[in-house]
Write a structure and sequence with these properties.
Blueprint (H helix, E strand, L loop, with lengths): L18 H30 L14 H24 L9 H11 L2 H14 L3 E7 L4 E7 L10 E8 L6 H4 L3 H10 L3 H11 L5
Antiparallel strand pairs: 1-2, 1-3
């Protein structure tokens, strides 16, 4: 079955992030990753179902290696964008069990925001507040590409896209202002729902 793009989970305009930017980001870029995910899956199915020969697979270059490398880039491109859009469309008012857990770990919400913002200024692609199931705790990880920086066993809760396509139309090179507005638009209810689902995994 083909993977279907998920619609934006909000309909209202966002503070600072324009409809034009969202349409390009969601309808073109994200949907493009979904299409590539499906295309790669179809081609890999030919190998996994014995329709194509696997004997040429090797770590230097082969069609199979290229597909497997592209698979993680496309799949993570889909999933990270879905987490990113899921966390938008709110009023930015921190509340709930996630906010309490953040304060407990970082000492204050402001400490967390400062730390997360610095991660956003440092990363080239993504910042992820995740539940690390190995240590049963919140952690912030960064990645310079879809398939770089991810940690096995860490489940994303809040994901920030800091690639230029996410903000350049509205903010130019002012990434900091975009990150500030990201938190102004954060849907803490959606983030709390993810946190409540994962917070006991790994304990």
């Amino acid at each position: 079955m083909k993977y279907a793009p998920k619609p934006l989970p909000f309909k209202k305009a966002l503070k600072g992030i324009s409809e034009k930017a969202l349409v390009i980001h969601h309808d073109k870029l994200y949907v493009g990753y979904v299409n590539k995910k499906n295309e790669i899956a179809d081609k890999l199915a030919e190998f996994s179902h014995g329709k194509k020969d696997l004997s040429s697979a090797n770590q230097s270059y082969s069609e199979f290696r290229a597909l497997k490398d592209g698979e993680t880039f496309a799949v993570n491109g889909v999933y990270l964008h879905e987490y990113y859009f899921n966390a938008l469309g709110g009023e930015g008012v921190a509340a709930g069990a996630l906010a309490d857990a953040i304060v407990k770990k970082y000492g204050s919400l402001q400490n967390f925001l400062n730390y997360f913002r610095a991660c956003g200024m440092s990363a080239r692609g993504w910042v992820v507040l995740a539940w690390d199931t190995h240590e049963a705790k919140l952690s912030v990880y960064t990645g310079d590409a879809h398939n770089q920086g991810g940690v096995w066993g860490a489940i994303p809760i809040i994901v920030l896209d800091v690639y230029e396509h996410a903000y350049f139309i509205d903010y130019g090179s002012d990434r900091g202002a975009y990150i500030d507005d990201f938190f102004m638009n954060l849907n803490w209810n959606a983030a709390n729902a993810v946190f409540e689902t994962v917070r006991y995994v790994g304990r």
